[in-house]
Amino acid sequence: MSQAANFDLSGKTAIVTGASKGLGAAIAIGLAQSGADVALVARGDLSETRAGVEKAGRKAFEIPADLCNREETRQVLPRIREAIGGEPDILVNNAGTIRRADFLDFSEKDWDEVLELNLTSLFLLSQEFARGVVKAGKPGKIIQIASMLSYQGGIRVPSYTASKSAVMGLTRLMANELAPHQINVNAIAPGYMATENTAPLRADEARNKAILDRIPAGRWGDPTDIVGPTVFLASAASNYLQGYTIAVDGGWLAR
């Protein structure tokens, strides 16, 4: 197999959660540009992402779902199997949210809602995806979206930090258990990306400057910066990579 063929996703179907905007939209379109059909999961408007997938010449399957609702989460994989007529090959657990408040004032509601989306939905989707590919006797790729706060504590985001730290640990556990079934489980930890989640930080002049001053690349990340590493982890090129979290951070952690 040529090196170019190692990265070719033709004939594969990928699932991308949180695909309506930001990192999820960029990932979905990038996977399509590498040859994959894509099941788009989100509670928001998926039309723009669908158009991007179809422009790349691939099929897009819209799966509207609120992943804060466990019953809806449990129906995602059955709905995708029905739509594509089989088992998908790649799962990208990108959907996530954040709440900000001082630790002393942080509410149970904000704790529960973040953990439900960022961690519980990831667990349920990964488990059902893995069960399906194991039963089908085929290999699979699971890619989690972690965070700089998988490595660091941060401030004013206790539920987000807890969830993303857990994502890194769960990625390792899943790799240990699923590697014998030819399922690769890895994660990507985006640095400070110019997305909706970071809008409050970019709007704060002091925080924005402090963040940029620490990033060797000298800029906020763009969602498209995540695409290359995602394609790598989704492809045959990463078949011997297991349980690892790749930081795509412009050098933030190197400082």
Summarize it:
The protein has 255 residues and is an alpha/beta fold.
Please describe what this structure looks like.
Helix content is 44%, strand content 15%. It is of the alpha/beta class. It has a seven-stranded parallel β-sheet with strand order 3-2-1-4-5-6-7, sandwiched between helices. It starts with a helix and ends in a 7-residue tail after the last strand.
Percent of residues in helical segments? 40-55%
| Estimated share of beta-strand residues | 5-15%
Number of strands: 7
- Helical stretch count? 9
Question: SSE layout and pairings?
Answer:
Blueprint: H1 3-6, E1 13-17, H2 22-33, E2 37-42, H3 47-55, E3 60-64, H4 70-84, E4 90-93, H5 108-136, E5 140-145, H6 158-178, E6 183-190, H7 199-203, H8 205-214, H9 227-234, E7 245-248
Parallel strand pairs: 1-2, 1-4, 2-3, 4-5, 5-6, 6-7
